[in-house]
Design a protein that fits this description.
single chain, mainly alpha, 3 helices
Length: 116
């Protein structure tokens, strides 16, 4: 290839011919890469797999984050219920202690009524 022949006019003509070749489906034949076609297909397959694995990885990470938030809520709920259970246990102990002392004070049988 002679570098003196490389002008803007020739470059534009080459790009135009390449564009036409792409539209006709002859671009790879003009580049003479037909013997590398299986390698090109394999490369596209690998790139597609890389993109697919990235998407799957992101969705898995998103699910992990959601589960962490839900687990945190469940831990808080569990701690609240544990505190309620302990307070009930103390109340029965306190009620038993009051009975042993002979007091007539008792815990209410039903919740208090709200006045409007």
């Amino acid at each position: 290839m002679n570098w003196k022949d490389l002008t803007w006019k020739n470059l534009g003509k080459g790009l135009a011919q390449s564009g036409i070749a792409i539209l006709k489906g002859e671009f790879l034949m003009r580049l003479r890469v037909e013997r590398f076609f299986p390698h090109i297909l394999y490369l596209f397959f690998l790139v597609w797999m890389l993109i697919w694995i990235g998407i799957k990885s992101e969705s898995t990470q998103l699910e992990v984050e959601r589960n962490k938030a839900e687990l945190s809520d469940i831990k808080i709920y569990h701690a609240q219920k544990t505190v309620q259970m302990m307070s009930l246990n103390r109340m029965t102990g306190l009620e038993k202690l009051l009975e042993d002392k002979g007091s007539e004070v008792r815990f209410p049988e039903k919740p208090a009524d709200k006045l409007k």
